[in-house]
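Appendix B. One record, verbatim.
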Amino acid sequence: MPFSELQAQDRAVGALRAALRRGRLHHAYLLGGPEGVGKGTAARLLAQAANCAGAPGSDQGLDDPCGQCGPCRKIAHGTHPDVFVLNEERVMAKAGRWEPKGGRTPSREIVVDQVRDLVDHRLSMRRFEGRRRVVIIDPADAMNVQAQNAILKTLEEPPDATTLVLVSSSPDALLPTIKSRCLRVAFAPLPEPVIRARLEAAGLPAEAARLAAALSGGSLSRALSLDAEALAERRAALEGAAALTADDAGRWVAFARQHGDDREVAAGLGELLLVWWRDVLVAQAGGGELALAELAPLTRRSATSMTPAEALRRRGLVERMLGALRQNATAPLAIERMLIGWFHGR
């Protein structure tokens, strides 16, 4: 797979390919951006290109891996002795399928013993066969504070011909000392048309693909996780919210309890409401494609029942509700406050 198959990431990919062409890879990269936009794939392609058997010279890689040579295949299968991956399953992939000290962690947290085993033992050895040793930590923000401090010295004084690649969907959660020692490469959210095309190619009906893409936040993996049943439940919840009226506070409370039992369900409702209020604003402006085309009659009725300023205000209250959920607010109360603001706010 060439770098060019990473869609809508020209800037990030261009920076990595330029470094490969010059034969001057940085000692540490931080690949940051939303989930499901190609960061992990880019990290693997970087390791392959740096060690591809078709590359010229002894310390310079191609700007695209061939994918067919011995090193490329070993890296793809996780068996290259000079490429280490501490990944979501907390398994250090290498020849012999060795796992780091501490093995798998039920908390899905990368702990200090695992990082120390990498630093003190694996990186202290000479390279076996590769031109460049590559360490991929994905997701890097799963490292606890102690684990991050354990990798810090290696970031400051990396071994010869070694590149560390930290992959993170929450790069700002990393310690400032970690971020300052890495070259940051930003990956952008995928455009909705790109996600829609991929979903439709995977067999999702056009309407469902449009809704999933609108709710994905630019993440293909997130869009793929939204099956037809989940999408139908979210549509029903949105229709219930839109049917609430200012004179029936009892229904607000019942609605908040129904959709606030699960924080993820509450967040999903908020994200869908953001999309819907955007559609209301589009309808008020008199043009543009609606993301929730199947709800067009409801959207147009709402668009004619209030001013654009009011629609924008209500959308802002949804954003505030989502922000409260991210700060661990009680979900039913966060939804209730949003609804009170809709009908009695100023």
